[in-house]
């Protein structure tokens, strides 16, 4: 008759301690990477505070003022460009996330003719460089009389962001249990009601990632805005910055100040969405 052996508790191996040399090398590498990352931004801020011609002597740490910022805000159409960019970026974000979320949910939950070709189409569209799309999109917007309009630029940016966002949200919706949808149908909700009232609140991390991506895509895009916006009152920030570069002289001090002001909204959007970004990026790559 065999006797049961007592179960021995698992012993956790002590965590290996790094040597001082390895720790110093690690911290040195982290500091070097931080310096490399921060230096371009710090240099732009430094140049923006050196006046109109301070960029010519960037090693001098004297003569700081806010003349570039006052000129940008008071003597140019920067505020008009800023407002145009806000309209276009917010419009592209809201419309793009709405389309991508509904498309991703439909592909995740429903099986219909063309299900797989649709997702492959989303993937193939991402392979084309933006420069190749300028001419066909220009012709399409011209036929629809949407050139030099907010609507045309918003639709253009959605055509860029929606395929990627739909792929990401499809992966995120795959991680949401199907039982939630079934419970919604038992309670009498329509498919859209189930999506809007039950799934969307659970998908906030994924929506935050796609919203941030859509906003950044529209906020800093140059090529389409330059070609599709012809009147100065419709310029976005990316197009307006080009007015500081002429054939004879470039106002690098003004460009640096404008670049600093442009980064502020993008940084604010990032800080608002950052607590959802990691969860949204990781959840879209797993299924459980």
TrEMBL record:
InterPro entries: BP-dep_ABC_trans_perm, MetI-like, MetI-like_sf. This is Carbohydrate ABC transporter permease. The chain crosses the membrane at residues 21-49, 86-106, 118-138, 150-169, 252-273. Its main location: membrane. It comes from the Bacteria. Residues 82-273 form the ABC transmembrane type-1 domain. One of its GO terms (cellular component) is plasma membrane. It is found in: Cell membrane. It comes from Streptomyces telluris. One of its GO terms (biological process) is maltodextrin transmembrane transport.
């Amino acid at each position: 008759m065999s006797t049961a052996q007592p179960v021995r508790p698992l012993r956790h191996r002590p965590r290996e301690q790094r040597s001082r040399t390895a720790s110093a090398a690690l911290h040195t590498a982290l500091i070097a990477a931080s310096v490399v990352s921060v230096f371009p931004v710090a240099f732009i801020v430094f140049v923006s505070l050196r006046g109109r011609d301070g960029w010519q002597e960037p090693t001098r740490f004297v003569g700081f003022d806010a003349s570039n910022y006052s000129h940008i805000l008071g003597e140019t159409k920067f505020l008009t460009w800023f407002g145009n960019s806000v309209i276009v970026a917010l419009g592209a974000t809201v419309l793009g996330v709405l389309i991508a979320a509904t498309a991703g949910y439909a592909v995740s939950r429903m099986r219909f003719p063309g299900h797989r070709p649709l997702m492959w189409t989303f993937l193939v569209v991402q392979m084309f460089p933006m420069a190749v799309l300028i001419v066909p999109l220009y012709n399409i917007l011209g036929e629809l009389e949407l050139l030099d309009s907010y609507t045309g630029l918003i639709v253009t940016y959605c055509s860029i962001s929606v395929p990627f966002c739909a792929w990401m949200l499809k992966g995120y919706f795959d991680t949401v249990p199907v039982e939630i949808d079934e419970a919604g149908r038992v309670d009498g909700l329509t498919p859209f009601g189930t999506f809007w009232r039950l799934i969307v609140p659970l998908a906030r991390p994924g929506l935050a990632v796609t919203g941030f991506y859509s906003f950044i895509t529209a906020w800093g895009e140059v090529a389409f805005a330059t070609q599709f916006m012809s009147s100065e009152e419709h310029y976005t920030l990316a197009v307006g910055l080009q007015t500081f570069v002429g054939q004879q002289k470039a106002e690098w001090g003004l460009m640096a100040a404008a670049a600093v002001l442009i980064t502020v909204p993008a940084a604010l959007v990032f800080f608002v969405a950052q607590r959802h970004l990691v969860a949204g990026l990781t959840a879209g790559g797993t299924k459980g």
